[in-house]
Amino acid sequence: MAATGTFDELPAPLTSTRNTIRCTVTIEPGEGRLLEIKVVSQIGTESEEELDLDAFPPEPAPPVPQAELLCHFDSTHWEHGKTVTFKIYARTPENPVWKVVKGGTTTRGVVNGFVLCVDTGPTPSGTYAVFKEKLETSKYGELPGLDSASWTKGDYLGKLPSMQVHVVFSHGNPGGLVPPGGGGTIFANDVRDAVPGPQPSTKQAMIGACNASSTEAFLKAYLREEEPSTTNRFTIGFRKAIEYQVGEMFFRIYIGRHNEGDEAEAAVALAAAAAFGEEEVPSYRVFGDPNARLRWLYDGTPGNRIGVWKVAP
């Protein structure tokens, strides 16, 4: 079959719950018309998975010499660090056997996340181990982290430029985070200077520190941009003093609900009900996109997970 395919948009690496593939298939003169085109993904020699397919009306409809596919997908469907091959297939009435007309590879990116804790915490397995396991269940890779009472202000700020998702548990002051190893309180200005713009890498920041989020400014700093946009980004912290075990429960449920398919706002509501019950003034503060997701396809709307991919309208 005489046809060519192009990837007009193919993200690399895949590090988001909102990736887009756009591809075009064009048949060469004399071939007649397209019958069907599809785009698939494949890891190594595993079975191919169909992301999108378009079939065209049979004759005597007008011939279709060119067609485009557009789909969005969630990269956490694939394991951290895997190389994903995308292929475009096409077939015509004259050549009804599927033929690959374009192939391309990209990597399920090195997902940047970390967990910092002031100590092992009161739970049997330790706070660090709990959240390391939770985020790795979210398919955020094998997470680096520091479970000790010695990490400093410099340690923390040095990690922020390349990090997408992180959990931190430590002490706090009004409007700031207090590292156990010294260096001084980490305030909003410190975070803002450490997070590169105009497109910050931060996807979600979970700040487990009493009073650190007493004002919105501290949470806003993680989403720094020249033109503020919180699309699919979310930060959350505690606005007053809370018990360590309660804070751990809150974030554990919050991340767990994301893994089950909830968006940020729904996950917060369930976590807050379990950890804090009914409160006149919430113990927590949030900032960002209420529909942000750690897993599953992000499309900017609330509700249960849509799935791994969705054909764009």
List the main descriptive attributes of the protein structure presented here.
313 residues, alpha+beta, Immunoglobulin-like, six-stranded mixed sheet, 19% helix, 31% strand
**Low confidence ranges:** 120-125
Counted up, domains total: 2
Across the major sheet, the strand order is 9-8-10-14-15-16
Strand content: 25-35%
What sort of overall outline do the alpha carbons produce when their principal axes are compared? elongated
- Indicate the CATH architecture of the largest domain: 3-Layer(aba) Sandwich
**SSE string, helices as H and strands as E:** EEEEEEEEHEHEEEEHEHEHHEE
Structure description:
By secondary structure, the protein is α+β, with helices and mostly antiparallel strands. It has two domains: 3-107, Sandwich (Immunoglobulin-like), CATH 2.60.40; 113-288, Rossmann fold (3-Layer(aba) Sandwich). It is built from six helices and 17 strands. The protein has a six-stranded mixed sheet. Strand 14 (204-208), helix 4 and strand 15 form a beta-alpha-beta unit. Mean pLDDT is 81; it is low at 120-125.
Secondary-structure topology with pairs:
Blueprint: E1 3-9, E2 19-27, E3 36-43, E4 49-55, E5 66-73, E6 83-91, E7 99-107, E8 113-117, H1 127-137, E9 145-147, H2 153-159, E10 165-169, E11 171-173, E12 176-178, E13 186-187, H3 188-194, E14 204-208, H4 216-220, E15 234-238, H5 244-260, H6 264-276, E16 284-288, E17 309-311
Parallel strand pairs: 8-9, 8-10, 10-14, 14-15
Antiparallel strand pairs: 1-2, 2-5, 3-4, 3-6, 5-17, 6-7, 11-12, 12-13, 15-16
